[in-house]
């Protein structure tokens, strides 16, 4: 089978590595990919956003059998709908435009959760600065502001005072820092607790759960600094109990299946308040694999990822092993844990330098590998192109062991990159035991 992955980040690198292992994969391409993906497998073009005609031409010319959409932008713009209309037999991983709107519009998602009685951080929606400023004093602190549309993981801010919230609202509505994505803003109740990311592969009728992960969204060690796309992750996220997984399957994922006949990956971002099965709430839905969670989830999955992905498009029947958990079905995973630490450009998620030269080390053993994200390669030399540059992914017999291996690699990386280390940073507490 000839498989095409759309996207360029750490998530797409992880998908590439796992899909390459599949017995179904003859060729795997990543469009556009990044500098740590072998050049022969990169499609050296602009990222696919909302113009799908060149994608269709490429699929037909290269005889691609299966397109795995890694990132949200083409999904929200309707890439699945386009491909299914234009190349009906083609297999596609990802939801249709309606399902992707769960991520593409936070207001749409909030309205659905109200209708379906899904526990979530309650919100009010402002359509203008005047309306937002009128609503602001009625909200309790801390307060979360969310741009309605896509904002590359930067559309969420947390405020402990009304002044900074008012300032952010002005930046969104007047300076238009998020463009049209900021035409509406949610003022949302802040949820206390521990975050967990639970991913469900969905085929329109049923769901298969992946092992839960823990993402670290704040930029700096100790959960300080601004919200980012994610600065690291670990799997399994055992702080989400089996009873909570079952509750999530029944009360959160099932309504999405019913309403949208959802296919592809449903990302359920949860805040867990206590151990009680129902003491959790949805922070966000996303319509694709999470980044950086995927980099920590895929290495410990048992089985053939391509079979799971094809199952979501009714192109493969379940004849792989699954684990039952009450009414939920789980993809089995290996023992041990994976910790993934993101190497970022200093300043990210704000302004940061690009073209930072980078040196990667020989990987010490099979338990540690590095996947690229915002990185380019020319003639064997690497430079940064984005805020999140690379992921150090380490497996260990338990989380502490995995974490020790990731940070040991980073110590050596620091030495090898001493000339430019002031331009780079990473969190020191990914996977730390609470
Ligand atoms: N890690 C957060 C996200 O993928 O949206």
Can you describe this structure?
- The strands form 6 sheets. The protein has a 6-stranded mixed β-sheet.
- It contains 12 helices and 25 strands.
- The protein is globular and about 55 Å long.
- The chain is α+β, with helices and mostly antiparallel strands.
- The chain has 4 domains: 2-93, Rossmann fold (3-Layer(aba) Sandwich); 122-189, ATP-grasp fold, A domain (Dna Ligase, domain 1); 194-319, 2-Layer Sandwich (D-amino Acid Aminotransferase, Chain A, domain 1); 337-425, Alpha-Beta Complex (Glycinamide Ribonucleotide Synthetase, Chain A, domain 4).
- Bound molecules: glycine (GLY).
- Residues 153, 215, 229-230, 286, 290-291, 293 line the site of glycine (GLY).
- Glycine binds next to loops.
Brief overview:
This protein is of the alpha+beta class and 434 residues long. It has twelve helices and 25 strands.
Ligands in the structure?
glycine
Q: What value does the Rg take, in angstroms?
A: 21 Å
* CATH level 4 superfamily of the largest domain: ATP-grasp fold, B domain
Which structural class do the helices and strands define?
Answer: alpha+beta
What is the percent of helical residues?
A: 25-40%
Shape: globular
Side by side, the strands of the main sheet go 16-15-9-10-18-17
Write the layout of secondary structure elements.
Layout (H helix, E strand, L loop, with lengths): L1 E6 L2 H11 L6 E6 L20 H9 L4 E4 L2 H5 L2 H8 L4 E3 L3 H8 L1 H10 L7 E4 L2 H7 L7 E5 L8 E4 L2 H14 L9 E5 L4 E10 L3 E3 L4 E2 L2 E3 L3 E4 L4 E4 L6 H19 L2 E10 L7 E7 L6 H5 L7 H7 L11 E3 L2 E3 L6 E9 L11 E2 L9 E5 L2 E4 L2 E4 L3 E9 L2 H18 L7 E2 L9
Parallel strand pairs: 1-2, 1-3, 3-4, 10-18
Antiparallel strand pairs: 5-8, 6-7, 6-8, 9-10, 9-15, 11-14, 12-13, 14-19, 15-16, 17-18, 19-24, 19-25, 20-23, 21-24, 22-23
Helix pairs in contact: 5-6
The structure holds glycine (GLY).
The site of glycine has 8 residues, from loops.
